[in-house]
Amino acid sequence: MTKDPDARTPEPGGPGLRSDAQRNRERVVEAARDVFAEQGLDASTNEIARRAGVGVATLFRRFPTRDDLIAAAFADKMHAYSVAIDEALADPDPWSAFCGYIQRVCQMQADDRGFADVLTMTFPTAKAFEEERNRSADKLTELLDRAKAVGRLRQDFAHQDVPLILMANAGVVTATRDAAPDAWRRLVGYLIQSFAAETARPIPDPPTPRQMYRALMRLSRKTS
Amino acid sequence: MTKDPDARTPEPGGPGLRSDAQRNRERVVEAARDVFAEQGLDASTNEIARRAGVGVATLFRRFPTRDDLIAAAFADKMHAYSVAIDEALADPDPWSAFCGYIQRVCQMQADDRGFADVLTMTFPTAKAFEEERNRSADKLTELLDRAKAVGRLRQDFAHQDVPLILMANAGVVTATRDAAPDAWRRLVGYLIQSFAAETARPIPDPPTPRQMYRALMRLSRKTS
DNA sequence: CCCGAAGTGGAGCAGGTATTCCAAATGGGT
DNA sequence: ACCCATTTGGAATACCTGCTCCACTTCGGG
Q1: Which whole number is the average pLDDT over B190-198?
Q2: What is the residue extent of each domain of chain A?
Q3: Domain B19-64 belongs to what topology?
Q4: Which of A76, A77, B203, B206 has the most CB atoms around its CB within 10 Å?
Q5: Tens of pLDDT along B17-43?
Q6: Helical residues (DSSP H) of B92-205, grouped into ranges
Q7: For A168-215, how does the pLDDT look when each residue is reduced to its tens digit (9 = 90+)?
Q8: Which nucleotide across the nucleic acid strands is nearest to A63, CA versus C1'?
Q9: Which pTM was predicted?
Q10: CATH superfamily label, A19-62
Q11: What is the fold of B75-217?
Q12: CA distance A82 to A47
């Protein structure tokens, strides 16, 4: 009687949830983090529920769509992702800031198979991330501008090149994770060198921002 | 292509097959080529049979394992792949030969989703390809040596870097195929520039040949 | 033209997903 | 201690796969 039928709070940890329910929710999120990290975003729902020690119904009640679960599982990694660029902006040397940022983000991909997917297939998943992404985008532009201003980053480096790097890196880490876990460092080493202004030579145009946006949106729906 | 009774392929098309059976076999191979190109190596068997207009039993009778089908479907693209390096070796300028080869192979990945998989996940599939690969490996070494000898290719470029490039490129093409089909050219542009001797700066060591071999063998068995 | 061997297609099976439903268990306010 | 709304686990459903089996069809040599 005292309960309000529509007192649903959309996303936070657990507002009106019973204490045990809230605990179970957290267990699901933790299991999802683990499983996604190991197996990528297309890991089986059953596996996550099993690993969390709850029934599948519990998982679905708390996270009706897969995107809800992904958003919850990667919320803090997305935060770390945007913190990374803040830290980069704090570096007095814009070039080392840029290089450090690229390496950091690629490292995050190497560490977490699911997160590599989130960063490349990306937004399909969550509006929750969209805001964070937009903030990051502005900061990224700032970072690139600084590195160009000091003459270290080539002028024709486009911000679309960053997701391009992430996609390339994702290709390497998914292929080499088991057999050669550090192979991606070599790729990134090559790439960063090619971003240096002093050695820049003409290369094909980058994809347009709009193309890149659409590429990132891809695959929310499977092959069809 | 080019139906030639004794062109190559030891015992492929059909030795003692009835004429209709042989025709069906060819239809399956063609359907497999199309479907693999569109959907990648993990396309559904049923889909291929349906597209070929035959029953699934026919497909399985002719190609008991998936690898058999893959080998048949990509035989001529593998041949083209090894021809590409011959053509590169025919180029009098070792550096443009090298650059052209990389671009050519990456182009092939961009054109065929399944072939991109074959080149990166690779051999899981076929001993048939192994011989072709070994021949190619020797020729590749020759190509790299020449380019290094004329001082255009950096000395620390390792032959393992080639599959590394293919993996990176595969990451980009799978992500951007629909929205930005030429994005991979930009990546390859960056990479090739970083392979030039004159601008070379130290980068992390490449994976060992053995690591790379194991990486290529990966995923013959799923996640387990 | 005929008939056995070769070839065929689709139903069927085992095993995998995502998602829904509901009888039973549980928390926590009283 | 009680009671009922909330929460739960697992069975049930509805698809997908890969792969096999077998009654029927077709080829092609005589």
Answers
A1: 97
A2: 19-62, 74-217
A3: Arc Repressor Mutant, subunit A (1.10.10)
A4: B206
A5: 899 999 999 999 999 999 999 999 999
A6: 94-111, 113-120, 127-149, 161-176, 183-195
A7: 999 999 999 999 999 999 999 999 999 999 989 999 999 999 999 889
A8: C19
A9: 0.91
A10: Homeodomain-like (1.10.10.60)
A11: Tetracycline Repressor; domain 2 (1.10.357)
A12: 30
* Residue partners of B49: CB distance under 8 A and separation at least 6: B28, B31, B55, B56, B58, B59
Identify nearest nucleotide to residue B54 by CA to C1′ distance. C9
One-letter identity of residue A91? D
Instruction: Look at chain A and count its residues.
Output: 224
Collapsing DSSP to helix, strand or coil, B153 comes out as strand
Find the residue in B nearest to A192 (Cα).
B194
Residues 6+ apart with CB under 8 A from B160: B206, B207, B208, B209, B211, B212
Tell me if residue A153 falls in helix, strand or coil.
Answer: strand
Which residues lie across from A145 on neighbouring strands? Answer: none
Using DSSP's 3-state secondary structure scheme, residue A90 falls into helix
- What does the H/E/C string look like for B4-44? CCCCCCCCCCCCCCCHHHHHHHHHHHHHHHHHHHHHCCCCC
**Which CATH code for domain A74-217?**
1.10.357
Which SS3 state, helix, strand or coil, does residue A13 take? coil
Chain B CB within 8 Å of residue A178 CB = yes
Sign of CA dihedral B52, B57, B58, B59: positive
Mean pLDDT of A56-75: 96
